[in-house]
Amino acid sequence: MEMESYAASAEFRRFLDATLRRAACEAVDEYLSRNARFARKHQLASIPSVVRSMKLGGLRELARRQREKNTKEANQQREKNTKEANQAFWGFLGDLIGESPDGATPPFALSRLARELLEEKGWWENEASVEEKTEKKRMRRRNKENLERMMNAALEVYFEHFNCHYFFRRQGED
Amino acid sequence: MNGEGMVALDGETLRSVDLFLEGFYPRSRETGKQLDEVRLDKSQIRGFESLAGSTRRFSEIVNYIKNQAGKERGARARWRQVAGPMLGQLEELEAEADRLASGDAARALEIKLKLARGWVRQVVAHYLYERSLREEA
Fold it and tell me: Model-level pTM?
């Protein structure tokens, strides 16, 4: 089955509906258990529109910009706490859509789930199986493209689950 | 297969779905009563019913409830009082769908939606009934 037709299959729709929901909820729970201060809910407001209009590249850029924005010097302690909380949040979010070179990507990260799905379906090529440099490079590029396609197909639903669970867990708070 | 990889459920499965919902009815009724007790507006309940009827994804129903509960501010905590039990009931419907589907992804999706829509209809009908009783009193 080609990747395009797989995206319309029941198996993939179940992956979006159940597997991604469990993972995104786990991600939120992990973030909340790992931090003492949390990003306010309005920080998440731009995620759906960025995901819809600019896909993975746009979300990566948003996470990067938000992280950098929150590293600037803060005068008041309260402002400093907010900036630190936002920085931790966007750093965490960046990890969900990035891939750690040492294989430490958390099991609930979208990038990890997408890669595992590619491997399971036989769409991930084993770079270690070839010696020739040019072919290795081509393989890496194809893997990267396939990973981005798979992540883009799942991105909107993953962050719908993520945002809704975040709002639910942070109910009654700003 | 018909449209977007959806399957038509066989008669036996549809009977199992109906039987399960029959058994679940007392709990749906209790939820409908709670929705009225916390004074959720009719328009919000109609919005919920409409979403359940139009979505192709079970998790959209779950996310709708979480979102409503999460966005309430201050003392106006209506969805927040009922979201936990509602999500718990949806979890039970999902587990039943997985059991009935016996590992078939397409069937599991259809059964989940069928169960969730049936449950929403039961809940909304009882909410409207409780509301009408209260308004008459």
Answer: 0.93
